[in-house]
Amino acid sequence: MRVNRCVRVCTRLIVLLLLTAWALLAPPPRLLAAGAPLADDTVPALGRAWPVGLRPPVLRGWEPPATVYGRGHRGVDLAAAPGTPVRAVAAGTVSFAGRVAGKGVLAVDLTGTGDPPLRTTYEPVTASVEKGDEVAPGEVIGTVDATGSHCTAACVHWGLRRGETYLNPLSLLPPWLLSRGPSRLLPVY
């Protein structure tokens, strides 16, 4: 009887370990918000932190325009209260920190991402860094401004470009940062 019980417990533990490994190694779902594609295969997932918060709600996803001047949403809007710290998603060099059309804008050229480099943008922000500063992943580079947002709720607009081509900034984040919630283990009966 003890052998059968031991076999059952061991089998359940092995199944639990396999399910956990599968959950950690499985590819992420291909959609995140409002039907927007989750990732762009031309962008390396080199991000190590969300720009704001731990897993901020995506208020509006990336909607690439059909033409260069067409309608679309050239970034993602992340819920963030005024004063929230804005962090560098990956290592890079600040290429712009100032105001554009009355909004605080910050741009960071990402290190080792080719020529032209990938550039992340954040607005509306009050920068705590200056043009030419080197930033590390997760480093605070500014705070969310109280005004200047195009969102109906407080948010930060996070963009990504290579040259003149807009890309989905969520592509910079690895799948484990994009998951919808904490990992959950199944009970062992």
Automatic annotation (TrEMBL):
Top-level taxon in the UniProt lineage: Bacteria
Keywords, ordered alphabetically: Signal
Keyword Transferase listed: no
SUPFAM superfamilies the UniProt entry points to: Duplicated hybrid motif
Keyword Isomerase belongs to the record: no
InterPro entries: Cell_wall_metabolism_enzyme, Dup_hybrid_motif, M23ase_b-sheet_dom
UniProt-listed Pfam families: Peptidase_M23
Domain M23ase beta-sheet core: 72-169
Gene3D superfamilies recorded: Glucose Permease (Domain IIA)
Record-given protein name: M23ase beta-sheet core domain-containing protein
